[in-house]
């Protein structure tokens, strides 16, 4: 399935998804970034625009790009209803339509695990950043130094979501940033507990499929269960922990 189809079905769910609309990770990232007021910001794989709106509210000048027209339609609707001026464009992260050194800050949140080539994305981010500019990358990660858990988690994610390519580990991201010529400024773990059912429903999973995937998770290897912490609370609510990493890098 192409990325375009995969996200189109459920674009509206991303507008309200708690995983995407709760912005503590972005608030936390500000500790590692220069003041953003007045900056030229590019939010890549913007989805329904949560990250783009966050920086627009901080008085930055923001472009948001994505390859999925339905996600961009929802983002534009939100932008109009909130009277926030973000310019949205259809464009792949691997081939950005912008001139070299146009932006002070490039952001990419909860999207890089969909990219077939993280390096192509990083090299484009590097190209459009001005010297001294920053990249803010937030994504779910797999554990450092545990190939078995990393493979299990990526295979599970691919069965949940056909558009999933690969979650990298924090160490993989550090290496890739270096390869793209970006200097790591900070790398911060941001574990986030998610309700299991909405997480599956965003991917149109029916009750039977949800239960089967839950059973798989509950019977996963111990190192995976320690990392993802699947739990059922006293009201029968199922949850798991996804491990986001907040990385800030700079172009010298
Ligand atoms: C989960 S959403 C992004 C969430 C959003 N960044 C936020 O903070 O709420 C992932 C988005 O990545 C987009 N995407 C995936 N691959 C892409 C690519 N190669 N170029 C541009 N956008 C891409 C999808 O279309 C989708 O809208």
Tally of DSSP helical segments? 12
Counting structural domains, the number is 1
Question: What's the total number of strands?
Answer: 8
Regions with little confidence, pLDDT below 50 for 5+ residues = none
Could you walk me through the main structural features you see in this protein, from its secondary elements to its overall organization?
The longest helix has 14 residues. The protein has a single domain, classed as Rossmann fold. The model has no long low-confidence stretch (mean pLDDT 95). It is of the alpha/beta class and 252 residues long. The protein contains 12 helices and 8 strands. Strands 1, 2, 3, 4, 5, 6, 7 and 8 form an 8-stranded mixed sheet that branches. Helix 6 links the parallel strand 2 and strand 3. S-adenosylmethionine binds next to helix 1 and helix 5.
Salient structural properties:
single chain; Rossmann fold; alpha/beta; 8-stranded mixed sheet
Summarize the topology.
Layout: H1 3-8, H2 11-16, H3 18-21, H4 24-29, E1 40-44, H5 50-57, E2 61-66, H6 69-82, E3 86-90, E4 103-109, H7 118-128, E5 129-140, H8 147-160, H9 170-179, E6 182-195, H10 196-201, H11 207-218, H12 222-228, E7 231-232, E8 238-251
The protein binds S-adenosylmethionine.
S-adenosylmethionine binds at residues 3, 7, 20, 45-47, 50-51, 66-68, 71, 92-94, 109-111, 114-115.
């Amino acid at each position: 399935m192409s990325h375009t189809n995969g996200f189109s079905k459920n674009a509206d769910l991303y507008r309200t998804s708690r995983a995407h609309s709760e912005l503590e990770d972005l608030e936390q990232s500000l500790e590692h970034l220069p003041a953003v007021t007045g900056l030229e910001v590019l939010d890549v794989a913007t989805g329904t625009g949560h990250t783009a709106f966050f920086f627009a509210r901080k008085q930055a000048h923001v472009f948001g790009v994505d390859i999925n027209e339905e996600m961009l339609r929802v983002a534009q609707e939100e932008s109009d209803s909130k009277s926030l001026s973000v310019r949205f464009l259809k464009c792949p992260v691997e081939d950005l339509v912008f001139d070299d050194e146009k932006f002070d800050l490039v952001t990419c949140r909860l999207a890089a695990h969909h990219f077939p080539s993280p390096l192509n994305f990083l090299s484009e981010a590097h190209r459009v950043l001005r010297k001294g500019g920053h990249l803010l990358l937030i994504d779910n990660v797999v554990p450092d130094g545990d190939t078995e858990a990393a493979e299990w988690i990526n295979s599970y994610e691919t069965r949940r979501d056909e558009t999933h390519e690969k979650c990298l580990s924090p160490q993989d991201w550090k290496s890739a940033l270096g390869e793209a010529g970006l200097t790591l400024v900070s790398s911060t773990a941001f574990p986030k507990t998610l309700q299991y059912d909405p997480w599956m429903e965003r991917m149109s999973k029916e009750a039977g499929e949800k239960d089967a995937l839950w059973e798989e998770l509950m019977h996963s290897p111990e190192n995976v269960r320690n990392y993802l912490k699947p739990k059922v609370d006293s009201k029968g609510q199922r949850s798991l922990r996804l491990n986001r990493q907040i990385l800030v890098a700079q172009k010298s």
